[in-house]
Amino acid sequence: MSKIVFLSDLHLSPTHGFFWPNFLTARAAADAAGAEAVVVCGDLCINGPDSDDEMTFAARALASFATPVLALPGNHDVGDEPPGQDPEQIIDGPRLARWDAAFGADRFVRDIGAWRLIGVNAQLFGSGLVREWEQDDWLASCLAGAADRRIALVLHKPLFIETADEGPANASSLTPAPRAKLLALLQAHGVAMVISGHLHARRDRVVAGLRHLWLPAIAFLGSASHGGVPGVDAVVMDFSGSEVVVEPLPMPRLEQHDLAALKQHGRYKFLRDMPPCPPEVT
User: Fold this and answer.
1) Which candidate, 39, 27, 58, places its Cα nearest to that of 155?
2) What is the pLDDT of residue 252?
3) Structural domain of residue 233, as residue ranges?
4) Residue 238: its pLDDT value, please?
5) What is the domain count for the chain?
6) β-pairing, 69-72 with 37-41?
7) Angle subtended at Cα 75 by Cα 136 and Cα 102, rounded to the nearest 5 degrees
8) Pairing mode, if any, of strands 115-119 and 108-112?
9) Nearest to 194 by CA among 207, 175, 178, 177
10) Residue 199 near residue 172 (C-beta atoms within 8 A)
């Protein structure tokens, strides 16, 4: 069995249940896919950086899968790397500890088919935290130990939007300095693919020999301004051959939520600011 289901950007909350029905549909489809594992590519929460309850809720939701789950954090889980989308939610030690208590790890390595999948915490790159350097050493070791397997890196944020040398720093992709360092490491080890979420849009292209795959979201549509196609969906990937085959995850159509409309076109800056509307959890 060489298939993995990829879900991204769930945005779950025990107080704001906008996207809970989409999650239930995706969970059922993922468990029916016969995959070896489900990878959740960040942003499990709406307000995870500042809420124990949200992190606990997301952890329980992922524990309800029949299929093994590998979860990576996003900016809505552990906070953003500087400068960040929200200056009040920058990644730090206590926020990482909250994730650790719920999920146990913020990275993984898994060999499947002809490939080695390496999942990392995107929010650490450029954070200046001790764990950033620990992850750097761990990543280098995982890359070096791949032997003859092809390598795919999995993380929440894309490395860049259009070009590897773009700037300035922004909240849509990795910041320039850590990006350049990471790209040099990936190139040195012949990494073939980078899989990311965050932008709630589909995009699949090769840049300088490296395939960059953006994942759709489970929660709400992204913006077309980044160059991808906004999407609320999920994918299943087959890693049995030298090229990864990517297909839509078979399931009923998810609700195509529009974030601006949901936040009443500027009335609320963040989803966490909205009046409570708890999910119907049985």
Assistant:
1) 39
2) 97
3) 3-273
4) 98
5) 1
6) parallel
7) 80
8) antiparallel
9) 207
10) yes
Residue 84: give its domain's CATH number: 3.60.21.10
CA separation for the pair 71, 12 (Å, rounded): 14
Using one digit for the tens of pLDDT, what is the confidence trace for 107-139?
A: 999 999 999 999 999 999 999 999 999 999 999
Q: Kindly report the pTM of this predicted structure.
A: 0.98
How far is the C-alpha of 77 from the C-alpha of 33, rounded, in Å?
A: 27
Q: Is 170 exposed, middle or buried (0-12, 13-18, 19+ CB in 10 A)?
A: middle
Beta carbons of 44 and 253 less than 8 angstroms apart = no
H/E element, 184: helix 176-188
Q: Per residue in 258-277, pLDDT tens?
A: 999 999 999 999 999 999 99
In a domain, 281, yes or no: no
Q: Which residues contact 226 (CB under 8 A, 6 or more apart)?
A: 161, 172, 199, 201
Q: Which residue ranges of the chain lie beneath pLDDT 50?
A: none
CB neighbourhood size of 189 (10 A): 16
Q: Which two tokens stand for residue 169?
A: 């720093």
Q: Residue 68 and residue 62: Cα distance in Å, rounded?
A: 9
* DSSP at 225: G
Whether 259 is in a domain gets the answer: yes
Number of CB atoms found within 10 A of residue 282's CB: 4
Torsion of the alpha carbons at 50, 53, 55 and 61, rounded to the nearest 10: -150
Question: Does residue 282 lie in a domain region?
Answer: no
Assigned domain for 72 exists? yes
